[in-house]
Amino acid sequence: MNPQTSVLLTDLYQLTMLQGYYEQGMEETAVFEFFVRKMPPERNFLMVAGLDQALTYIESLRFTSAELEWISQCGRFRDDFVDYLSGLRFTGDVHAIPEGRVVFPNEPLLRVTAPLPQAQLMESRLVNLLHFQTMIASKAARCVLAAPGKVLVDFGMRRAHGAEAALLAARASYLAGLTGTATVLAAPLFGIPIFGTMAHAFVQAHGNESDAFKHFAQAQPGNVVLLIDTYDTERAARKVVELAPRLAQEGITVKGVRLDSGDLAGHARKVRQILDEGGCSGITIFASSSVDEYVLQDLAGAGAPIDGFGIGTHLDTSADRPYLDCAYKLQEYGGRARRKRSEGKATWPGRKQVYRYVDSDGYLSHDLLTLETDVRDGQPLLHPVMRAGRRIDPPETLTQSRTRAAEDLARLPPGLRDLRQRQDYPVEVSDQLRALTAELDAKNDES
Question: Which structural domain, as residue segments, surrounds residue 156?
Fold first, then answer.
């Protein structure tokens, strides 16, 4: 079984509910929506990501013979139900907000319309895919806002929570506007530019720091970025100045130096001065070491002469906000709107659409959450992406998603761009949706 594509990568209750639906013949059309309930205190906006992986999962949904054999032998399910599962395929429709779009609480990022067992079964994996990439893209977008024009590279693979997380973090952060990643497999899988320098071990393995720099440059003549803080940062910078003209005679250009510890702003100023005075003004300074959007903003405010950053742990784990309060909930079944009324977790019922409005300056003004049938004059955010179990259009390229992300970030009003002050974006709820909610509540109170 492939752990990333197996239908068994789910919660047990998805299968136990499925058997209950099967036995009761409950296969009428259901509508489920994935959304974020509320904005984390550390976020003013979120950015959609993960749709491509979600659609791939939906389109290929089926039980393999090995999975069916395990279900049959686990002792929880009857043989006729296992036979039913062998023919299960997704035959429904999907609407979604495109990747790279900025979104807010209670707005359905994805809507699944299908026979109840099909729509229910995919809940756990869809939440898993959409939640993670949306969380990482939202973190990465904040880094982009904090350091406009800088080279920003995902350095977080080693701290990511598993192989899939590392790859999808590279994808989501690139989608949100980062320059690239250090994770090599992201290049052949997603076409993401990859970046790399050297480790302290390379310097330590040499008896002489200058020899380490020279040998690395000769091994990687087209990508010479030297790590200079293994011992004494400023002394190493002077060694780079001495080495650069000798390497130039071999046709090798030193592109940059990297700082990975200490007072990044202070070291960068000293190193910049050493490089400039040594005739190496073309050598850039790249910095890493516990970088996040707050560090980026502080360094920018301090005028630190740093040209690019590697963003690792804080990005790939979304350290300040490692989860989103999101859900995939039933909103309609058998042609009747449904609503969850649990305290603190109530939902807006029915099939919904989100309309976006901008002000006279082109900035986002407000969104309207309403019923799908309530057509308005704003920009509709949800679009059909699958019909009768198949994608309507070929998958978007990451370039297309990156372009959309950049456009949406440019349309954020100043208050939403603030990284430290919370500002709520207005998401209005239509009278039609409120009326349906009141109607359902009245019926439930009478029953």
Answer: 148-316
